[in-house]
């Protein structure tokens, strides 16, 4: 039963006075109990009884209030038993038992409230952290304004230790930020001029200027706060299940109480049964476990809108994932540069990137970023213009350059056909580059797979998700390639937002489904799923608002973390409720046959309540099962070798280009020079890198991975890379002794080069997914 929209006035009053009511009630009931014990010890029996009666009577009033509140919320059973047991002890003159029940009831409520406060500490901290003021430049002066007055384009000053008030871009040289509130990561992050900054992060360095890119209402942190305020507002299905348990627990308690009266022939036995049935730990432990799980999730950058979302996530069996921006990086990247035989590949990239500096297109951004990563000297273009659907044209170094979808000549060269075939086979976009009307080369671009995607999906399967489905509006070819690499069960490609909703609804009809997405077009599908999860770090506001759960850090592995937390919290909630009910029922049976007097039963029930609440609080801690902890020294090594491998990956096409050239002009001096460059790359850069991994990185990974067997297959790959590299060196020695590459060498040399290229690509991908993905992406060496 859902809670009415407007609560009665007495409920509001009780909620307002609850922070001091529970400690006061505990103090009064405990004082009355102790006073009665002292009086009884000195022989003042009547004084002792009076003190215990006062303690019991004081507890009856709030117990009646809690019972009324429970009835208003649609819950019955527990508080009614409390009132009956307190009243029953007074009727049968078991004043000590009544006082013990009063202390038990007061301490249980106080303990429950303390546990709730501790469990929701991180959620409250998130709300309290919300920025309220901003320092805005007004000419040469600074003015402090309410954050709601900040407008897009305003230049703001963020002082050391202050919270960034709105989303924007760094307008000064650099900023050092603490993003732990949003991401859960403790390492500081440096943002240079022009880079985006999200509201809610803390300036951990010197003061910097910020150009506002959004209003406060549209900024990241306001959206997160809006979600956090709703956290815990609804009761999860497991809590409603607890209410249903209470509906049969009450008749059982009354039946046993009546049976005890018949067996013992005294109402004292009935009161003893009611004493051990009050308060049922069912409704104490479950909310604590649920809120504890939500709190733990918030600490790693996962905001769960309500307990229902956590409970549903905890028993989901199907996950539906959007491709672009969720399984992939969401940003295209240059994966290959193919140049005409007479042109250098770096020159093709340089002139294309120089021209694309004038384009706002996402592919142009990727080309420029790749060229800058290669440290190429870009020049500003002149007379640059963009034609929709075709690309850019302009003057670079005094020559007319075109980049984009160019019309190919009918008699196109063979290398252009190779580029077209490679783009089709690799499911990449292609941007042609021409200079003065002559084709110079082609750039292949693709949205790369997230490095943590394979490990995340494997963890989801291990957690009990039986069906993994991908939804995308992209073409079928790249969608199927991603699905094959990740081992997904089904792919729905070329889907409209309406089509995505239909697919999600179909999946939700047969199982509890989880939908993960980040774009505006994902919002309807997120709302249609049993549980919607938004990639909120770079996703749209619409998707975050439609989702039940928001990942505030741009890491897909947080999805697996959230799943583990949800399953653990739900399991602990059910476990705590079941154990508490079981112990109470056993105690009720013992009391029913007259073996447990009311006073002893009250003490026993107090112990049960404390035990189950303490057990529920375990949801605040993470399970160590399946977790990998990488020491900081090893993490430093991972980042170092990851950076080195990234540079090696950029040079990797050299091996395949040498093989292509060898197949085209086998006996030419150009092929010999290319083979020599390849040998130098292998001997001077690649093989030393692999040897350093073998002697430094792999031994450091042995402990966190559970032994050297975890890296044994990669060591075998190193041996194969070394063997093929030496084979290429031997071929080069033979060729240089003859002054050319011999015809008898061509077949084996081609097989060796292409084989080495394939082995290296696979080896790099395996290391990135298995080892480098273990490192915190924001960890600084």
From TrEMBL:
This is Heavy metal translocating P-type ATPase. Belongs to the cation transport ATPase (P-type) (TC 3.A.3) family. Type IB subfamily. Residues 637-775 form the Hemerythrin-like domain. Keywords: ATP-binding, Cell membrane, Membrane, Metal-binding, Nucleotide-binding, Transmembrane, Transmembrane helix. NCBIfam families: ATPase-IB_hvy, ATPase_P-type. CDD domains: Hr-like (cd12108). GO terms for molecular function: ATP binding; ATP hydrolysis activity; ATPase-coupled monoatomic cation transmembrane transporter activity; cadmium ion transmembrane transporter activity; metal ion binding. It is a multi-pass membrane protein. It comes from Saccharopolyspora phatthalungensis. GO terms for cellular component: plasma membrane. Pfam families: E1-E2_ATPase, Hemerythrin, Hydrolase. Residues 129-228 form the P-type ATPase A domain. It is found in: Cell membrane. The chain crosses the membrane at residues 20-43, 50-72, 245-263, 269-291, 572-596.
